[in-house]
Amino acid sequence: MPKSQFMDPDVLRQPGFVEFEPIPVNQYNKTIKEESKNFSKEDFMRIYRDMAIIREFEQMLLDIKTKSEYQGIAYNNPGPAHLSLGQEASAVGQAYLLDKNDYIFGSHRSHGEILAKGLSCIHKLDDKELLTDMETFFDGATYKVVEGKEKDKGNVKDLAIDFLLYGALAEIFARETGFNKGLGGSMHAFFTPFGIYPNNAIVGGSATIAMGASMFKRINGKPGIVVSNVGDASMGRGPVWEALNMGSMDQITQLWEEGHNKGLPIIFNFFNNLYGMGGQTVGETMAYNILARVGAGVSPTQLHAERVDGYNPLAVIDAMRRKIDILNNQGGPVLMDTLTYRMTGHSPSDASTYRTKEEVDKWAEHDVLVNFEKKLVEAKVAKSDDFAAMREDIRERMMKIVKLAIDDEVSPRMDLGKNPNIIADLMFSNQKIAKMEDRTPDVLIPKEENPRVQKIAKKERFGFDKNGKPVSKNKVYQLRDGLFEAIIDKFYEDPTLVAYGEDNRDWGGAYAVYQGLTESLPYHRFFNSPISESAIAGSAVGYAMSGGRVIAEIMYCDFIGCCGDEIFNQLAKWQSMSAGVLKMPVIIRVSVGSKYGAQHSQDWTSMCAHVPGLKVVFPVTPYDAKGIMNSALNGTDPVIVFESQRIYDVGEQFHEGGVPEGYYEVEIGEPDIKKEGKDVTILTIGATLYRALDAAKELEEKYGISAEVIDARTIVPFNYEKVLESVKKTGRIVLASDACTRGSALNTIAQNITEMAFDYLDAPPVVVGAQNWITPCYELDAEFFPQKEWIIDAIHEKILPLPGHVAKTNFTETEQIRKNKLGV
Amino acid sequence: MATPVIMPRQGQSVESCIIGKWHKQKGDQVNVGDMLFTYETDKATFDEEATVAGTLLEIFFEEGDDVECLLNVCVIGEEGEDVSAFRPEGAADEAPAEAAKEEAPQAAAAPAAVAAPALSNTAKENVFISPRAKNHAEKLGVDVRFAEGSGPNGRIIERDVEALAQSGVAFTKAAAAAAAGSTDQFEGTGIGGRVTTGDLKKPVAQAVSEAMAAEEGVAYTDTPLTNIRKVISKSMHNSLSTTAQLTLNTSFDATEIMAYRKKLKNSAEKLGLGNITLNDIVLYAVSRTLLNGHEDLNAHMLDDKMRRFNHVNLGVAVDTPRGLMVPTIFCSELKSLAEISAETKDLAGACQGGTISPDLLTGGSFTVTNLGSFGIESFTPVLNAPQTGILGVDTIVQRAKEVDGEIKYYPAMGLSLTFDHRAVDGAPAAKFLKDLKNNLENFSVLLAK
Known about the structure:
heterodimer; A: 824 residues; alpha/beta; Rossmann fold; five-stranded parallel sheet; globular; B: alpha+beta; Chloramphenicol Acetyltransferase; 3 domains; six-stranded mixed sheet; four-stranded antiparallel sheet; 11 helices; 26% helix
């Protein structure tokens, strides 16, 4: 809510109409002869060749899936194959003008797109660049398989085509020599050196990610455009709409600074094959009738939306030429509705019960290869024999590639027997990179002049004064200051770092962590996002994938529910699904609420900890907040940083000397002993630490029990050594956090402790979590979240009966059974 | 009809015995007189013979089990008879092997001072115990079956083992029942340091000691101490650490007693005096000397008092394969030399055979120990505390003395008297030796008294 923009009721209340421009539908109508000045014979023939290669590739997979053989070569492929037979012209047309600086993102049905984009790049790249790309990719592991096997020995482009086909097919067949070492597979194959970015098995999954990649290009001034390829049915998904909106948000042209204030360079392309699995999008599951209509609803530019005839490669090329011009001049985004048709089912097992044979036959009459050949023959560009020879050539090449890709000798699978950690080692990149690019960061003032920095300089960096008295809230360096200090430092170091989320900029974030950041940072590095959690998280994934570093804020951890796919399926997985090609330096800041009821007060650390590929941290002291944020920001892995709204104002009570002014890191994964003791260990996640310390005090004073209190700080990764050492000493442990007890990550920790310290335990580890209810109103907080008394009661009831103690809560076995029986 | 075999009570002070070895297995045929099993107190080993014939139908306790006296140990009867009515409380169920693992205490060597039962008064067989408490118990060598679980659902947790170790290894069932509710502390003198009903009568002020964790190595062989060795070790150490003992040595002319013995040996066989030994003669002399002005040496030195005995209850040290034993000849001053001699032989035989009644192994007021047969010329006997004196009898050597201006050789027998200087001073002790020497050198006169 920038003050510069005046919401004037005198204007806003005026009557009027929203008017639309007509949206073009299949307006291309040029003949081959007319296009002859734009395309040489070689160009026409190359367009045909690329379509024919895709056709043969997909036909080969169809044969293998349905007949377990191709041209007499037997093979069984148990993996998926969503084929794009019939969609060749749309893919080749789209890729024709794109080079390696242009990024495409795809769907589950994107074999054709990656081949078309690859072939287009091979044509445009010189031999030297091609050789370098091939030789350096995975140290030449893929390249070595095809090297010297090309038909025309010494022809680098010929070799590169083999490389492309082989890399894609080996990936589909889950070979270690594939583009992603077989970890991506058919629906996720990609090859970034050619600007081919991840395809995505989640319908519409690429929209937000591609939008983030286009943000990276715009914010960091990178050449090239981004194409989001999703299907027509993905228009049914919220994240796609969120991407369309956020990618078109007004501030980019109205508030972002000169040089960054052109609309995002992105084409939201919908390969509209009229079906989402079996659901017919026009007439059954959608409302748009013509998909291009949607563009008019998103922004006054109508997203320059247009329907293009995807059955004519020249029509698509023509559209792409015009759209790229728009992106380069006035800016995007652009929406393309590329009409096409898949000749086979959703997958080889699809019996196409939802469409008639007449319909399929009719589209077959429009077959892109047949018709394009016919037109070229008619225009005397080439003879029929030339096309037949070309197809035979392609078939031979395909047979050669298939033989290589199914040969276990040259195309082995990952050997987990020999190297059991091969996938585990890919889950995190674990690098320390201070800045993702080496250039001067774009800032508005020197850091020393920042008002918040100056304010913090006057604060007491330790929570107690010389006499041990607590420093007042106004004077003490708070947890939010720790987060701020780490973040602003990194903004002045890493030029690619951006931060966004809801109410980040002028408001300073809902809990004032970012207060003062606005003064230092231009809009394009620090901005308010729409209330679009999917687009916030998804764009962060795309931004990082393209080479940048992001702090995305999801205001309340409960809202992770709105971006579950983007966090759990995208953010968590791309480092490993890319076999380490991609890095994911993304911080997702989420706060755990209090006082705000059932949809704003949940601790979802456990949910995040469950999904492999995410680091999950929950610092609860100013020292840890700064140190852990520094570690996260300096790393290359996705980190979900949980913050508790209960303690943003807490001062540092543990680290002697207070929070250091300079840079330091707290290693992610190391729990910290906040109070030493000998009789019982209390391990906490999150703000429960402070209640555990209160419990420890009472245990000591009333019962003479000395409790050791350990703050987990991190949930993933987690080093058990310190905790085991403690448990071996005390023999007893209570684990407490504000997460609901059932499925809490604490149960996993408790189980591991039981396994590893069983012989030292005097009682089973006991988990004290929140009730398995909705979070009630704040006034009933003490009935829902673990309290000091609960911890003591749990010790009394389940671990070490305390003489004279009267339990107020019910930790008996009977109650445990009853509650679980009821699912509460 | 099936007949149970009980654990015999060997003397009033015995509350339980440990089964040593089973000579018959369940299902074996048993005849009258067949050896069923051996059992031992901390002082002796006994054999139990079958008194009825039949099939050994059931065995309730395993080797090594500590069984209370009078409990049924096994049942003999006709094949197929039901024995469940005879199963004692606390015995192992059908699979006694399980219980065997939990068995006998890794007893503390020193007597443990024990708080009265906050402890369980029964040894439980199915105990719920935390892994930590179990490990701790093993380390401390306490028997968790005697711990009272204070954890959730009665689970034995670390602090219960700690309490058990602090307060001693265990109480016997009878002692625990008797002492319930008492806040006194007791010294355990029973098997493995267990507190017995006898111990309840003598509370001690202070808790003592903690068990030593046995260390293991490869360059030597560790053999667990037998109970008897533990008792010896304990009492010897106790003696040296709690008394002020010193030894006086002298010798006497044994000419007369040797002549007397020779005379007896040649006497008529029907008199049965041929087996009287020089040691018997010394015992006799001691029994007649102590109550003649040397009552302080026929006494027990207790903390705050001297207990002088009206009779000379003479302890006689006996070497046995299991170790040193000291049976008592009660009222020896009233017994004739023949009686003393016969009783000494009976007692020694019983000790060596392991059949000595435990009641005869206590109650001594003075002890005589003889190493003369091993050629020992003088030594330092260790007091059998709280007795105030112990006489060591040495070998005979030839010595010379001047008689009427002539050097004459005579057989000199050594005497080594250890006494507790807390109870007796040097001069009275020397006086006792002098009187004893006099009585021995003039033995015929003594006999006439």
